[in-house]
Structure formats: C-alpha cells, structure tokens
Amino acid sequence: xxxxxxxxxxxxxxxxxxxxxxxxxxxxxxxxxxxxxxxxxxxxxxxxxxxxxxxxxxxxxxxxxxxxxxxxxxxxxxxxxxxxxxxxxxxxxxxxxxxxxxxxxxxxxxxxxxxxxxxxxxxxxxxxxxxxxxxxxxxxxxxxxxxxxxxxxxxxxxxxxxxxxxxxxxxxxxxxxxxxxxxxxxxxxxxxxxxxxxxxxxxxxxxxxxxxxxxxxxxxxxxxxxxxxxxxxxxxxxxxxxxxxxxxxxxxxxxxxxxxxxxxxxxxxxxxxxxxxxxxxxxxxxxxxxxxxxxxxxxxxxxxxxxxxxxxxxxxxxxxxxxxxxxxxxxxxxxxxxxxxxxxxxxxxxxxxxxxxxxxxxxxxxxxxxxxxxxxxxxxxxxxxxxxxxxxxxxxxxxxxxxxxxxxxxxxxxxxxxxxxxxxxxxxxxxxxxxxxxxxxxxxxxxxxxxxxxxxxxxxxxxxxxxxxxxxxxxxxxxxxxxxxx
Amino acid sequence: xxxxxxxxxxxxxxxxxxxxxxxxxxxxxxxxxxxxxxxxxxxxxxxxxxxxxxxxxxxxxxxxxxxxxxxxxxxxxxxxxxxxxxxxxxxxxxxxxxxxxxxxxxxxxxxxxxxxxxxxxxxxxxxxxxxxxxxxxxxxxxxxxxxxxxxxxxxxxxxxxxxxxxxxxxxxxxxxxxxxxxxxxxxxxxxxxxxxxxxxxxxxxxxxxxxxxxxxxxxxxxxxxxxxxxxxxxxxxxxxxxxxxxxxxxxxxxxxxxxxxxxxxx
Lengths: 486, 266
Ligand SMILES: Nc1ncnc2c1ncn2[C@@H]1O[C@H](COP(=O)(O)OP(=O)(O)OP(=O)(O)O)[C@@H](O)[C@H]1O
Ligand SMILES: [Mg+2]
Fold this sequence. Notes:
The structure holds two protein chains of two kinds. Chain A has helices at residues 3-28, 40-75, 89-109, 114-119, 127-133, 144-182, 189-229, 232-237, 254-285, 288-303, 306-326, 338-363, 366-374, 379-408, 411-417, 434-442, 451-485, and strands spanning 241-242, 250-251. Chain A has a two-stranded antiparallel ribbon with strand order 1-2. Chain A is built from 17 helices and two strands. Chain B is of the alpha/beta class. Chain B has one domain: P-loop containing nucleotide triphosphate hydrolases (Rossmann fold). In chain B, 39% of the residues lie in helices and 25% in strands. Chain B has helices at residues 2-11, 57-64, 94-100, 115-125, 132-145, 149-152, 165-178, 195-209, 221-227, 245-250, 255-261, and strands at residues 17-28, 31-42, 46-50, 74-82, 85-86, 101-104, 183-187, 213-217, 230-235, 238-244. In chain B, the strands form two sheets. Chain B has a six-stranded mixed beta sheet with strand order 6-7-8-3-9-10, sandwiched between helices. Residues 1-14 of chain B have low confidence and may be disordered. The complex binds adenosine-5'-triphosphate and magnesium ion (MG). Adenosine-5'-triphosphate (ATP) binds at residues 28, 31, 33, 51, 53-59, 71, 73, 106 of chain B. Chain A: InterPro entries: MetI-like, MetI-like_sf, Phosphate_PstC, PstC_N. Chain A: The chain crosses the membrane at residues 43-65, 161-180, 200-221, 256-280, 300-321, 333-353, 454-478. Chain A: Pfam families: BPD_transp_1, DUF3708.
C-alpha cells in the first residue's frame, strides 16, 4: 500500500476518533457539557492527536530509514566483477533501483506474471531489451547479479512497505484507543490539545531554522574542501580573479567583492532617497484616491522579472550612459558599466524601499501627527521631526532588505555591468560581482573536485557573511535608536 | 466720553470675548455631530464643557483649532472668530492658528522622544529660544507648570513614552503650555491623574486664567464647578445650556441639564 494511502487511512481513523471521543466525553458527563473540564470538542481533539501524531511520525521516520536498510541488504548481492571499470557500487545501485522500478512496469503492462519474474534469469533473457519494450531505458546490459539484486531490492521493499502499513495503522488505532479510554469529565483535554498545538508551532519554526543551519553547514563544509586545495590567504587577499580550467588559476575575492559593493552602493544611492520620498508622498500627502493608484503602480516595479531589467540595462540605459556621460566626460566607452547596473538595480529596488517604508509610516499612530500639528508644526515639520524618527527602525529594515537584494542580484549585473573582474573607482567601467562569478564557475563542467568549481561555495559563504554582517549592523543601529526613543 | 469708554472697558475687562462661534455644524460623513452651536467664550476665563459621552464635546473643541481639518470625513460649517478674526476662513493658516491655540488631547500622546525634546519641540519650531540656556529655562518652566518637574528633573533625557499614563498626560500639558498659547484647549486633562496631580493641574489652570482663555472638557462635575467660571452643557450634538458655572450647577434652566447634573442622563 502506498504511503499516501496509509496517510489517508490514518487521517480517517483520527477523524473517526474525534467524533467518537467527542461523543464519549458528552456521554460521561451525562449530556451536560458544563460538567466537563473542557469543551467536548477538545476531548475529540485529544483522540485525534493521539491517533494521528505518533502514527504519522512513525510513517515519516520509516520512509526516511527504509531506503538505507534496503540498499544495505541488496548492494552486497552485486558481484564485484559486475561493476564496470570507472563505475562504482553506488552507480550500479542506481541501475538496480531503475530495474526494480522497471520490473513493476513489466508486471503491470508488460504481460509478465510474478512467477515469470521470479524464475527469469538475466543470463538467458535480454532484460535490457525487455525493459526497453515497456519504456524503461537502461545505460548498459543487465548482468545476472545485478538483476538478482534488483529482484531482491524489489522484494524487500514490498515486504517492508507491508510491515510499514500494518505498524502505522496499529499505532494509529492504539493511540486512538489510549486517548479514548482516558476520557472522563476531569480529564484536562484543553491543556493537552493546547500543548499539542504549541509543539506543532515549535516544529514549524524549527524546520525553518534547521534548513538555514543545514545550508550554512553545507557551505562551510565545501568551503573547507576548497581551502584545502587553494590557500585561504590568496582567496581573501589576492587582487586578481583569473580562473583557468587547466589549473593554476588566481581566485582572489577582492575584485568581485569590490564590484558587488560598488554596484550595490550605486543602486542604494538611487533607490533609498527616491523610494523614501515616494513613500512619504503616498503615506502622508496623497489623497486616498491617488494613493490607491500610485502605491500599486509603484509596486508593479517589484513584479518585473530581473532579466527584463537586465535587458533594459543592456539595450537602453547602457548605451545612453555611454553616449551622454561616459564618452563626453572621457571616462570610458563601454556600455556595460557599474553605473548601468547600479542605476537599473536602483530602479528595481525603489518599490522595496517605498512599499515597506509606506507601511511603517502609516503605522505611526495618528495621535503623533495630531500632537505635532496641535503644537503648530507644519506638515513637513511633523514628517521630519516626529514621523520619520518614529518610523526609523522600520525604514532601516526596508533599506536593509533592499541592500540584501542588491548584493544577491545576478541577472542585472550580467547584462548591465559585464563579466570583467576588476578593481577600479571609475563607475563607467565594466566590473562584475560575486553572484555572477558563482554562476559562471558552475556552468558547464560541474564536477566538484577542482578549486575552480569549489570556489563557488567559498564565494557563496562570503556573500552570506556580508549580508549577515549588514543585518547585524542594522540591528545595532535600530537598537541604539530605540534606547533613545522608546 | 473718552473716559467713560475706558471705564467701561476696565469694568468688563475680564469679560472680553475671545472666541465667538456662530451656527457651527460638524458632520462626520452622514453623522451630524454638532448641531447649530453658537457660543461666546470670554478671555481670561475658564470655560468648562460638560455632557454625556459621545455628545460632541471633543468635536467642538477640535473646531476651535481646526484639528478637524485632519479628519478626512469631517466637515465643518459656520463661523468661529478668535479676536474678531474668522478662523474658518480658508485663507487662515491653521499652522499659525494652532501655535496660538494650544491643545491637550484626551489620550496622552507624547512623542517617542526624550522628555526634554517633547517639551522643547514647540518652542524649537516656533523659534522661541535664542540659545540652549534659554531653551533649558523654557523647558523647566513648562514642566513646573505641568506639575511634573519634580518627578522628571533627573531623567529629562529618558523617553517620554516610558512615563506612567498620568505622567504622560502632565508631560503633554507641559508641552502645550511651553509654546505660550493664548487659548488652551484641554480635553479631559485629568482623566488619568490621581487627586494630587489633579489638584496641581487645576492650580495651573487657575494660573493660566490670569493671561489666557482656557477651555476644558471634563466628566467631573466637581472639577467643572471648582475651576470654571462658565459652563456649557452639550447633549447629543446640541449645546443645551451655557452660562455662569454657579448658575448651571445650582439653578439650571433646561430639564436635561438638571437631570445630567443630578446624575440621571449620562
Ligand atoms: N473621527 C470620527 N469619525 C466619525 N465619527 C466620529 C469621529 N469622531 C467622533 N465621532 C462621532 O461624533 C460624536 C461626538 O464625538 P466626540 O468625540 O466629540 O464625543 P465626546 O463628547 O468628546 O465624548 P467623550 O466624552 O466620550 O470623549 C460621537 O457620536 C462619535 O461617534
Ligand atoms: Mg471626547
């Protein structure tokens, strides 16, 4: 029986448990809910929880553990001689899994019976051809031991699945029965169900945290590999970035970091003042009617895919800046430049700054505005001296979000700033960023063994550290400000 | 002739009309919150507005410094003259008006700034001080008049929002008197105060009366009787009765005033 079906059965049992439990709670109280410690529904919920939670937990753990167990049992069946040179047991096991899936198809649509399969010998029958007939393509011929392993793999999986189904359903029924028997008017069903809800919430928040921890750990792990192949000193302090796939490359992060920070800086230079003023307009000055048009119109900018901004940078802004600024000023003649990417990215970031700032400005209580204008302050004095300071933590948050977006942005930089890693103060020169180089190091040959590919992880980790640092700085700023004002 | 004129003025000196409202109506959208209210408020007097909750006392008070402008759905008709100048005229700058007509709101609303900055806010934007010492003096004087100086003098640079509700209300009073308004509108200034602070605020009101005109909304009959010379009774948007405080409390003309004062409406 498939896991999905088992899940459904458990849910059904739990539902039935809910109904029965609720009824029993009422019955024990002689039909008077006031005699119960909790509302009847809570008693039903406890039965539901006991029926569903342990059984589903068992199901999940089983599903995670079963493949390891089955592979362990079957991989030993493969003859070492059948593992082709240049291949490995793991790769052959991938074949085993495919064949075992293929056998299922054979039985289902290929007209073979289970008995046929059991006696079938890969030495006599061309399994590869047979499987190709039902649409399962294999990379090589099937050896006898591999086929036997596949049969055993399939058999073991089937048995394990059956055991799983039985155990899970028993667990569900047992849980339901246990909770059912505990029902009596004094039983604190509400506390149990509140506690279960709390656990559920904790579980959800830990998933988010654990995922982050997992990602960071894998980055750290691969970065460690990288530093075993490439000296950390060169990575952090070398001023050149020049990867060679034949080896002997220069992998210094500084030019990329410089490009990243330079582009982001220009982007924020554009986005923050414009976005903030737009937010002040929509939140403070615009009439409700105007606001209802202007705010969504600005937010549309956030919905444009970044690749479209990239095209805009490549086709319009780049040539424009080159023809009207860079060339007349004698600052260069490349249409890809830090300025191009920065300006276009700035436009992209305006809605991030404006929309969030608008929300926080709006959240400042009307009483603050009344208090200020009641003292004879003008509207703009009120905005500058009362509203903005009160909204500052939120505005810093908005700017920070925009900064993280800018640092992580890739598409606009590829098309707007070019791919040349270089350190220069001239904003009209082509430069590139960390994210662009991560992409270019990983496209094409992706065997994670050389420093040229592993450097991507080191770059990713550095990027993470930079954004984390930004967040911490902002937190400190906000906290300092709060001490002063709240 | 000339002499007589002067004598006349001297005699009615305390009775000069400061604010004169004629046929004021206020609508919140469809809701008619103030109905045809006409009232003359004298200079150097304390005028109390009393009446059951929701009768429009705050609404009428907000007309006097045009705070109703900030509410989109509010619409005000009629005329209000302060020193003979019609403040409902669109050409009048509400910002200047509010510098002259200060307000203490029903709910305390200190800015999220330090206690000092809260009080210094008005004087700063009106350029009332020449230097820091000046400003320090203004702040201290205002806090003393707000009857809160002793409690906050050692923590002037701590946030005003960290004070207790009653302290916040007194801070707001100090903030309002710091700009030296000619008219002070106080919307239930003592609703969050203990008897001692209330007595101090009432003392302040009495002191302000020497120079200013004070309008106070209150739910406490005793307070109205203690601090005010004139009392207006509002009921469901109408101004039912207006006159000398003593008369309103001892010998009201309208049966509705009677029942409110003796505790039957409200
Ligand atoms: N901003 C507003 N929007 C719509 N209606 C309002 C608004 N402010 C007040 N009102 C209505 O106007 C009427 C008068 O309100 P107001 O606040 O002036 O009463 P009040 O006499 O000050 O009462 P209280 O003693 O409870 O403060 C009430 O019915 C109220 O519902
Ligand atoms: Mg009120």
